Amino acid sequence: MSTETRTATAPAPGTGAHTPEAAGIISDARQRIDDLDGRIIGLVQERMAVSAVIQRERLTSGGRRVNLSREMEILDHYRGQLGKPGTALAMTLLELSRGQI
C-alpha cells in the first residue's frame, strides 16, 4: 500500500477538478458532450420536420392532427429504453413536434 498522500489543490477554473489531469479529462469530456448536444438538437429539428410532413398529410387526407395511439407507442418506447425519465423526454419531443403546420 502506498504511503503517498495526494495534496489537494484549488479546483481548476471551470471544471471543479483538483489536478491538471482531471481538468484535462473533464474538458475533453465536456467537448464531447457539447458535440453530442449539437447532434441531438439537429436530430430533434429533423424529427420536428418529419412530424410536420406526417401531420400535413394526415390533415390533408381528412385525419386528425395528432394520433394518440402512435404517441402512446412512442411514450412506451422511450420509457422502456430510458425508464421514467424517458417518458418526460418523449413528452417533450412530442410537444415540440405538434402543431408545426
From TrEMBL:
Residues 1-22 are annotated as: Disordered. It is an enzyme of class 5 (isomerase). Coiled coil: none annotated. Residues 20-101 form the Chorismate mutase domain. This is Chorismate mutase. GO terms for molecular function: chorismate mutase activity. It comes from Streptomyces decoyicus. It comes from the Bacteria. Its EC number is 5.4.99.5. Keywords: Isomerase. InterPro entries: Chorismate_II_sf (IPR036263), Chorismate_mutase_highGC-bac (IPR010958), CM_dom_sf (IPR036979), CM_II_prokaryot (IPR002701).
